[in-house]
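Hello,

Following up on my earlier ticket. Below are the three sequence lines again, exactly as submitted.
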Amino acid sequence: MIPLLRIRDLRVSIRTDAGVASILDGVDLSLERGRILGVAGESGCGKSTLIRTIMGILPNNARVESGEVMFEGEDLLVFSEAELNGQVRGSRIGFIPQDPLLALNPVFKVGTQLLEIMRDHAPEDGLRGRARGRAHVRRLIHLLQRMQVPDPETALERYPHQFSGGQRQRLLIAAALACAPGLVVADEPTTALDVTTQREILNLLREVVEEFGISLLFVTHDFGVVAELCDDLCVIYAGQTVEAGLAGAILSAPAHPYTEALLACHPDRTIGFQGIPGSVPSPLAPPPGCRFAPRCAFAVPVCSAAPPPAMSRSGASVKCVRYA
Amino acid sequence: MTPILRKLSRDLPAMFGLAIVLIVLLVAILGPLLAPYPGDAAASHLLRRLKPPSEGFPFGTDNLGRDILSRVILGARGALEVPLVVVGIAMTIGVPLGLVAGYRRDWVSESIMRFTDAVLAIPQLVLALALAQLLTPSLQSAMLALSLTYWPFFTRIVYAETRRLTGSVFVDALRGIGAGGTRIVFLHILPNTISPVIVRATIGLGFTILVAAVLGFLGMGATPPAPDWGLAIAESRSYLPTCWWFATFPGLAILLTVMGFNLLGDGLRDLVDPRLRRSR
Amino acid sequence: MLRFVLRRCGLALPSLFGLLVITFLMIRLVPSDPAAAMAGDDATPQQIALLRHQYGFDRPIWEQFGVYLGKIARFDLGESAFSHRPIALDIAQRLPATLELIVVSLLLSVGIGVPLGVFAALRYNQGADYLLRIVSVLGVAVAAFWLAIMLQLLFSMQLGWLPLRGELAEATAPPARVTGSILLDSVIDGRWDALVDALRHLVLPAVTLAFGSLASIVRFTRAGVLETLQNDFVFYERAMGYRRSRLIWLYVLRNSVTATVTQIGLLFGSLIAGGVVVEAIFDWPGIGSYTVQAILTGDRQVMLAVTLLIGAIYAAVNIVTDVVHGLIDPRLLDRP
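Thanks for your patience. The regenerated structure is below:
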């Protein structure tokens, strides 16, 4: 079966005053229909650039050097801005942002903002004009009910600052689902929330994936959340995919030295670097070959010669010469 | 060169402004040496009245036959003197008031700030016009009126800055080691308020040139035969439209000078407060 | 909402009181003897004493202030020393013309300035942006009275396209006075010829006055839009496929104009001030030319009354901008 989303050998660089920074340098991932893929990496590893590349909203000084982003059989990288806006963003790909307070426009009613998305992207239902608008309101209220937002009718008339953090995130999940997308991209949607709310939102996401028949690309730095939510996992280090496969398999038996080091030094499985010597390399002058090599306990000279190819190993694909 | 000056030197518009300011300053200082007819500050030559620009008189001559180029050059001194004095006096009044209001937290501070707000509640030009008119109209009155209406801008800035600093850990620490109020204010707070004050002063210089020109234009500033730019424009009005050059060149001189100060002020403000960067 | 409005009005009270104190002090503290100044140079000491008594300058200062407040409360602004008419009457007659000029200038500068500011922000650091920045620097630096004369020189005297001065041509009979604004009165009266003529007369003064504020509005809108574009919600809105035109002109702009609205309050002050000379140059029968006339004739009562009036208008405008601010940004209304 063709995956819903498959990214191959994605390389993105950004021109800065200090030189060209290679932010993504060989990202590979694939997401099957109806599954949840966790993309995990510490901050600065290129997660947000990855999301921006998928949505086609890179800053002006960024350039896609190579690779492809195949979505439903089409390469999104060759889409024009108008095509992306008209056929992909909001309609076929929904987005759930990290901080729901900052992501909502503070001076517009929540209903106005959510209906704005449906105005252009809701699936055709044969209705026109006000009838179409009313149908959108009905669908939205229905969705908010499903997301357990209290008082869905009046919620549409309120402003973002009048909701709690958890409620705002529920509003945005509703927004992501409003136009019946095939894929939802979530950018650390629970980091800005407290622990209990976090759990509720994760449960809700799990449920809607099945109910709405979507696939979820879940970007996070938190392995605990991955363990709880994700079917598959893709670990990124300094802009390179280092290991990808079934989440359970990787978490119980990490193959790549980076994943291994991370999981080993943190019993609570929260990413940090205390346990790994050295620091994340600067994207302005990345080490050649495997970017983890300078910090790796198993490094051999060949690691820095060329990027290691992907190796298959018990349900996962690992980019490390140890398995060659 | 300190890093801050190096940064300023990369700001092209600000450098352009600085160049204008320096040129005007030079012209103001060397005026009588540069002017082709330095005597035309006061003299009149009725035989060559209202001549259009020519080789001998690049900017033409005015209603009394005086060379307009010379008068524009000679006018630079007055045009700079007035704002320098005005901003100087306004700073002398406004900065100490701001320091006191900011450092103390009692009725003195309250009354100073209420009064400052009240003065700011009237557009400066209007208040200055009223004041200048109540005093006997003259250049001195105009300068006094402008100073008496400009100080609140400094009080506001210094007040805000002082409040920010007195709330900071470092002033608490100074109090802890037994430093007295006066010492804290003059040695530790005042130096910190200097950069915003300089920025405000630079912008204020440009602004005051404009307002002073309005006063001159209304006959409440310099008196004839002084080579005042605003006054010249007022005098030119009876000779329009034939003598377009009479009004044009003094006006351009005002425009260029004010622009110089504004560009420089904007650049300085960007340095002091990068949050307000207009070129973000 | 009502509570918000009332609170803003309450906040304006101290500065209105301060305004009264300042105008009062200006009469009292100015070195020369107000009675002598009113009486003129040829007055005898008896006449001066009589005036001093008449105006209460010989009574204690607190009492004088009380009397002053009482008069203001009754809209008694005194009498013009030269026309011998009540100043309040003169002002009532002239205020509509001034407001008309200012409002039209403001509409011009907002109507042109906001789109230009957005345009400059979207073309950030490109040719058009630089050009607009230069123009806006010029706009702030130009002396309004000089610009007025230059425009007169070009468009009235040289090209003859627009009238030189006044509110209406001599040949045009003025419409029946209802509001005092020629534009509105022409419409109410159904006098389309007068409307066209009035508009032609309005162009040069309004453009002169608008130029400076146009420049500030472009600057502020540009800065506001650039700042708004940095926000997370803009990324979210793009990621959810908001149509670009609506994203910029509705969702981004409404966030950006809060700064511009504050600016408009301040601009109103500078428009009133700038209007003084512009009205005088274009012979516009408003408060500005009244002020200049008072300056030329040394009419202190009028000067003070005008200062008070302008301060009060300025305070009122600031209340209005705060309320508009609240309407644009609902978060302000919910703040305690």
